[in-house]
Amino acid sequence: MTNRKLIDFGLNPIIGYILLLIGFIGFSYYLFSKTEFAEYAFILIALSFVSKLSETKRNDFLKYCFRVTEYRKLRLIENFIIILPFITFLVFKELFLFAVILAILTSLMALLNFKSTFNYTIPTPFYKRPFEFTVGFRSTFYLFFFAYFLTFMAIYAGNFNLGIFALLVVFLVSLSFYSKPENEYYIWSFITTSKGFLFEKIKTGLVHSTVLSIPILTVLGIFFLSEITTLLIFQLLGYIYLVTIILAKYAAYPNAMNLPQGILIGISLLFPPILIGIIPFFYLQSTRRLNDILG
Amino acid sequence: MIKIENLSKHYGTKQVLKNINLIFEKGQVYGIVGENGSGKTTLFRCIAGLEKYDGKISSDLDKLKNHLGLLLTVPFFFSKITGREYIRLLCNARNIPTGDIDERNIFDLPLNQYASTYSTGMKKKLALTAILMQENKHFILDEPFNGVDIQSNIIITDIIHKLKELGKTVIISSHIFSTLSDTCDEIHLLKDGEFIKKVFKEDFSKLETEMKETTVSNKIDKLGLR
Lengths: 295, 226
Known about the structure:
The structure holds two protein chains of two kinds. By secondary structure, chain A is an all-alpha fold. In chain A, about 75% of the residues lie in helices and about 0% in strands. Chain A folds into two domains: about 35-110, no CATH class; about 130-295, no CATH class. Chain A has helices at about 1-10, 15-35, 40-50, 55-65, 70-90, 95-110, 130-155, 160-175, 185-190, 195-225, 230-250, 260-270, 275-295. By secondary structure, chain B is an alpha/beta fold. Chain B has one domain: P-loop containing nucleotide triphosphate hydrolases (Rossmann fold). In chain B, about 35% of the residues lie in helices and about 25% in strands. Chain B has helices at about 40-50, 85-95, 120-135, 150-165, 175-185, 205-215, 220-225, and strands at about 1-10, 15-25, 30-35, 55-60, 70, 140, 170-175, 185-190, 195-200. Chain B has a six-stranded mixed β-sheet with strand order 5-6-7-3-8-9, with helices on both faces. Chain B has a three-stranded antiparallel β-sheet with strand order 2-1-4, covered by helices on one side. The longest helix of chain B is centred in the C-terminal third of the chain and has 16 residues, at about 150-165. The N and C termini of chain B lie far apart (about 50 Å). The model of chain B has no long low-confidence stretch (mean pLDDT about 90). Chains A and B meet through helix 7 and helix 9 of A and helix 2 of B.
């Protein structure tokens, strides 16, 4: 599956894995340099990846194909492949206890199946304007609670950088809501022009991301008043990247975002002024793609 | 009114629709029948503007797609969106206020549950409810009776009658002949991308007999069932 996704992204799988590894090491170093609670966050992140393999339908299929012992072995192997980089990094950091805890939790999760079709509907503040934030919030709400927890810890420890990290988590998760192209029916149904459609998507994205980020922004603004300019710059950057991702999504539509787009966005992270060129470029491509469906 | 002139559609070298000419009038219900792969869904997608094609499709309204309710064979639902939110999404898309959704929930669907957890029939009913609430002028219903229980079958039949009464244009495809004969004014037979026959209400039973003879004939005997 990962191979296929990398190929769809326009990347040779081997290069993709190398880039993922580099990204993982970079992210891990960043996380551990920014907060003293990194090991807890690290375990949570690892388990969130592992939990993706516990989906009921997928596991029902595996149970149908394999005998019980083979199925259990397979689940364990899959889970450990996922957490291998995390455990390696924890061992490298000499956090042996956390590495053992992660291994135990991962083994236990091989026994669990998470039913994604359970009857309980997770409440969302975004029910009035479905769908990106409605679906996204329900899938990742715990990450927002995690971000709010980090904000609390940032204030408790007087660590402004940790607060900024919490704000970035909110925006990064919000950006991920736009990673997959929706079924064409959900574009076709709109009676608007491509410009109107994009405007509405951007407006909704900005309003909804504000709802999620405003508690962090307000609290950090109060407790780190001297850093308010930095805070607002990060908030603004969050908005700009949200707009960029929305435009990039529809610029690639009906396909998922591709490698050249990824490279452009990657370059913009190093040199944000380049967005002045990227945003209009994605906008023009998006309107062209959407015109095919919206007419 | 929807007017189709010289409509052809190719997928690569394969021609799936061949020079189709047809007019769908207001206040009429049209049935499209044909074997799997005969081109029904492609025809619907062309009318909806979801496929590029050769020829011309026009209507008496400014932009056909903006007044068209399209019920897909297999409606697509996001994994974590409730029935209520799905209806709201489709109504928002058409700038139509939803009103009291519960009151208009005539199929008694569990609207607060995730739509993706619905059964096949419930999904169909939800998608139909949503396009009805969009207040469209034209309707394309691709297998609306598929997987739906008997009670809902009766309701859907009545809905189609009501749409006809209201002067809407309704185009239906179905593999259940009785549902078509109950609802349609005309049935068009599609074969290999071409309309080979047009039958009016009075000749529906003749068409059914004919179809049984030509499509089934002695095929069942070939199975050698014992």
